[in-house]
From TrEMBL:
<keyword id="KW-0812">Transmembrane</keyword>
<feature type="transmembrane region" description="Helical">
    <location>
        <begin position="268"/>
        <end position="288"/>
    </location>
</feature>
<dbReference type="GO" id="GO:0016491">
    <property type="term" value="F:oxidoreductase activity"/>
</dbReference>
<keyword id="KW-0813">Transport</keyword>
<feature type="domain" description="Cytochrome b/b6 N-terminal region profile">
    <location>
        <begin position="21"/>
        <end position="246"/>
    </location>
</feature>
<feature type="transmembrane region" description="Helical">
    <location>
        <begin position="181"/>
        <end position="202"/>
    </location>
</feature>
<keyword id="KW-0249">Electron transport</keyword>
<feature type="transmembrane region" description="Helical">
    <location>
        <begin position="214"/>
        <end position="239"/>
    </location>
</feature>
<keyword id="KW-0349">Heme</keyword>
<feature type="transmembrane region" description="Helical">
    <location>
        <begin position="419"/>
        <end position="436"/>
    </location>
</feature>
<keyword id="KW-1003">Cell membrane</keyword>
<protein>
    <recommendedName>
        <fullName>Cytochrome bc1 complex cytochrome b subunit</fullName>
        <ecNumber>7.1.1.8</ecNumber>
    </recommendedName>
</protein>
<keyword id="KW-1133">Transmembrane helix</keyword>
<keyword id="KW-0472">Membrane</keyword>
<dbReference type="GO" id="GO:0008121">
    <property type="term" value="F:quinol-cytochrome-c reductase activity"/>
</dbReference>
<feature type="region of interest" description="Disordered">
    <location>
        <begin position="521"/>
        <end position="573"/>
    </location>
</feature>
<dbReference type="InterPro" id="IPR027387">
    <property type="entry name" value="Cytb/b6-like_sf"/>
</dbReference>
Length: 573
């Protein structure tokens, strides 16, 4: 006879309220089917935080921007200021500028929110630049993430454009100067420049429509596209799984890390509040964009020492460094190459190279495999050197955009600084490329030496005959595996010009691919052969007692290395 009795219906306890809410949501949204997301694993590395910083800054931008729209008036209609800021009393200005002054001085907490919004924008752009650089140097853009690389690149371009548009909304003298430059750059574009200028400004510069049109772009169109692309970007990160650096237990088919719930979520939540706190602290103590000191924009004035935000500094530097070339082409049209080349062609080429690099590298190497393990920057010297040269070019132009400030602060000649920027435009990236590549190859040699001779311990041991040598220890299996798992790509073979007397129809294309492959892959340090590794292990395990290894390093793989009766060893730590 069974001893289990079923409780009467009246005696059953009701499900907890949380469970009932979850059941209600599951019946309509199917949330129980997404339980696998809670076990989604994310690896850990400090460089992965750049993307999180950009995402959290974007959230703060949305929140602060929504608050600012309640008080900002996007109108270029003229008004006379009669607010609390005495130096501007009675001065004609646009309503956009007047509302910005009112937000700063009349609205409680308005100045703090303005500065928090601005600092968040600068932080987001900086974090996205570092995030993109990290992806480039580690090769995470390879298959199957080429599309996600393009999405991230478009987000970066849109964020820079969004920052410039938002920077122009207050209609102060500094932002108006930047708008004047933007209008000149737009006009320099052949054929479509005048039409694009009419679309942006609604007529002759400055017109009455630029601020309302930029306002619509700033709060609606560009953020909407950015938000949609960010969601797609994160979905693809989940779908492709997160990349990770090489190490024990890490393969192309797994991810080693912590699950989304609760570990990663708790750490990400804490990091969000940390980023928010740092931005709030910066906004509270560091003044930025004090528009009341610049005054309202007037087309016949310009502020001395005017500088754009740092992300647009390279464009300013290119314009200042390039000669003032202006040619008249057949047909009577004037082309201003002094603006077209540095402000249109050069940035376009830089963006195209950055956007299309994954496809170029895949074509040159012929690599069609999926990659979920990351390279260390030293593992791909040419790619790393090219990326650092790209950054060096950007920095040279950035300093060129501040040539007047540098000349004033350091009592230098403005012309000498300009010529230095022109020379540095060609010289600094080339030197950076050569030096970076040599450093990467040197680090590869050092890794090879560690595999064959062990690592330096920092301990000095005295031999019986009085010689002092540094003690080396063999690497552990995890470190050894990480160093040996580095990919060493081979250069593509040179194509044959003809076969059986028939010319190769693809000879030019294959020759170009061979030369690019030789540039991209040549010079890498090969791994030690299995025989060399076996000899290295045997030497560390069975070196003669009391004698140094052939490379001058004492073997300390086993204790008691000295013969009895000899002078005791002396170790210096």
């Amino acid at each position: 006879m069974s001893t289990i009795e079923e409780a009467p219906p009246s005696g059953r306890t009701e499900a907890p309220k949380g469970e009932r809410i979850a059941d209600w949501a599951d019946g309509r949204l199917g949330i129980y089917n997404f339980g696998f997301l809670a076990r989604k694993v994310f690896p850990e590395h400090w460089s992965f935080m750049f993307g999180e910083i950009a995402l959290y800054s974007f959230i703060i931008l949305i929140l602060t921007g929504t608050w600012l729209t309640l008080f900002f008036e996007p109108s270029m209609a003229e008004t006379v200021y009669h607010g609390s800021y005495v130096p501007l009393q009675g001065i004609p200005m646009s309503k956009a500028y007047a509302s910005t002054i009112d937000i700063s001085f009349e609205v409680r907490g308005g100045l703090f929110i303005r500065q928090l919004h601005h600092w968040s924008a600068l932080t987001m752009i900086g974090a996205l630049c570092l995030h993109t650089l990290r992806h480039f140097l580690t090769g995470s853009f390879r298959k199957p993430r080429e599309v996600n690389w393009l999405i991230g690149f478009v987000i970066l371009v849109l964020v820079i454009l969004e920052g410039f548009v938002g920077y122009s909304l207050p209609d102060d003298l500094l932002s108006g100067t930047g708008l004047r430059i933007a209008e000149g750059v737009t006009l320099a574009i052949p054929v479509v420049g005048t039409y694009a200028t009419m679309f942006l400004f609604g007529g002759e510069y400055p017109g009455q429509d630029v601020v309302p049109r930029f306002y619509s772009l700033h709060i609606l169109l560009i953020p909407g596209i950015m938000l949609a692309l960010t969601v797609i970007h994160l979905i693809l990160v989940f779908y492709h799984k997160h990349t990770q650096f090489r190490g024990p237990g890490r393969t192309e088919n797994n991810v080693v890390g912590q699950p989304l719930m609760p570990h990663y979520t708790a750490k990400a939540g804490g990091f969000f509040f940390l980023v928010s706190g740092v931005l709030a602290l910066t906004a509270g103590i560091a003044q930025i964009n004090p528009v009341w000191t610049y005054g309202p924009y007037r087309s016949d004035q310009i502020s001395q020492g005017s500088q754009p935000d740092w992300y647009m500094g390279f464009l300013e530097g290119a314009l200042r460094a390039f000669p003032a070339w202006e040619w008249t082409v057949p047909g009577g049209y004037t082309v201003n190459f002094g603006v077209l080349i540095p402000a249109v062609i050069l940035p376009t080429l830089m963006m195209l190279v950055l956007a299309l690099w994954p496809f170029l590298e895949a074509w040159v190497t012929g690599d069609k495999d999926e990659h979920h393990l990351l390279d260390r920057p030293r593992d791909h010297p040419t790619r790393t050197a090219f990326g650092c040269a790209f950054v060096a070019l950007y920095l040279v132009l950035l300093f060129g955009g501040a040539n007047d400030i540098l000349a004033e602060r350091f009592h230098l000649s403005l012309n000498q600084i300009t010529y230095a920027v022109r020379i540095g435009f060609f010289l600094v990236p080339a030197l950076t490329y050569v030096i970076t590549k040599r450093i990467c190859l040197g680090l590869q040699l050092r890794d090879r030496d560690k595999l064959l001779h062990g690592r330096e311990t920092g301990k000095i041991r005295r031999l019986p005959h009085g010689e002092f040598v540094e003690v080396h220890e063999p690497l552990d299996r995890g470190q050894e595996y990480a160093l040996l798992s580095r990919e060493v790509r081979e250069t593509a073979p040179a194509p044959a010009a003809e076969h059986d007397g028939v010319p190769n129809p693809r000879a030019r294309k294959e020759i170009l691919r061979h030369r690019l492959s030789r540039w991209l892959n040549s010079g890498q340090i090969p791994h030690p052969t299995p025989q060399e590794m076996q000899q290295a292990r045997a030497h560390l395990d069975h070196a003669p007692d009391g004698h140094a290894s052939p490379n001058g390093h004492l073997d300390t793989a086993r204790p008691g290395a000295l013969q009895p009766g000899r002078e005791p060893d002396q170790e210096l730590h």
